[in-house]
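User: Structure please.
Assistant: Input sequence and predicted structure:
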Amino acid sequence: MRGRLSIRYRVAMAVWLCFYSRMTMATITSNHTQKHLAVLIDADNAPAAIVEGLFEEIAKYGIASVKRIYGDWTGPQLGGWKKVLLDHSIQPIQQFAYTKGKNATDSALIIDAMDLLYTRRFDGFCLVSSDSDFTRLASRLREEGLTVYGFGEEKTPKPFVAACDKFIYIELLREDLAVTHNGDSPSDLMTLDSAKPVHTAEPVKKPKAPVSFIAKVMDDIADEDGWAHLSALGTNITKLRPAFDPRTHGYKKLSDLIKGQPHAFELQARGTSGGTSVMYARHKQPGK
């Protein structure tokens, strides 16, 4: 009897160890395939109201291994950020404004970014600011082979946008930022009492989809029958226009945008040997 129990016990343990090993390896593999990102936020040029949408967006690209925010925390102007730091485990970095007209926050953020770069622990950086002073930093990080995701307002200077691999306008992360309170800008609203009434601005009309641009990119990578792999299309569009985002034009994803232009494009789903489907798109040529 003891011998039988011993055999059953050993078999059960072997099965459990096999299962545990597979789960552990799957976790390790998953962690290795995800990018480790350093998130650096310029508090002077980013409203606290975007924090939820910001980290939801960053989660699409990888793991936010480091989260730091820079500013002068001795004054009331960053009150909105102070309320959300603990909830999102963001480390505040104090930087006094030593000289009027000089942005010490930018310098501190840039120095930290370079220090983090040389640890070689990160696959990419998320730079949250609408300030063009970070243009050279973004370029330098990319020169080292890292991926740079930029986050800023639509007013962000084009050089900074172009210096990033991908740029996301924060208006897309929190579309109700466009509110007014006695003439205050959205960034000023961070410090206002949330109990006070605010007046919502009229909905902004979404710009039309850049059909001609998408068609050109599609034609450039299409096969001999004119079909382009949708994933490759999205990658090439982002390379040429880092700030391109289907949400800017009222669509959740690229396939929805393509589908919403039936006069110009057609979509096709192709099955794979693995039982999944892959999307392809084709530009409808005039006269055909």
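The two ends are 81 Å apart (CA to CA).
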